[in-house]
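Suppose a colleague, Dr. K., hands you the sequence of a protein chain of 148 amino acids and asks what its three-dimensional shape might be. Before reaching for any lab equipment, you can write down a predicted structure in token form. Begin with the sequence itself:
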Amino acid sequence: METMGTEDFYGGPGPEDLLNAAAAIAQALRQFAATEAQAAAGLRACLPAGGDPGPISDIRRAKAVAFAAAEAASRAALLLEAADLLAPGGTADTIATALGNATKRAGLAPGVLVPMLRAAALSLPTDDASARIAASIRVQELAHRLAS
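The predicted structure, expressed as tokens, is then:
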């Protein structure tokens, strides 16, 4: 029987760990998207409907609320797209390029996703340590590529 070296045990996350991490990050991003969508809906509910002054009668405040609602809805859509791009896994370069293109289509800078990705990696709903480590590594790789 062959003896196993240190590199056999400590070689970093394997392919399955990276796929589990991708799925977990995608799920966390979907939860963030749901929160953003709820915020957008709540803000839109405050806006006056035709003829009804509603709870916000000052036009300046209504514009600020409408803008915040639109931004929250935009972030929700971007987070859902990011989740769909991350879920299948793949190389960091491929995913970062796709995420960068998605943010550009949304009219945002690619770096806007970095805090959300980091938060997703920290909020993984799993006790799988390998997936957590893989998620942290993957998010750091993506953050580096999106920032440059």
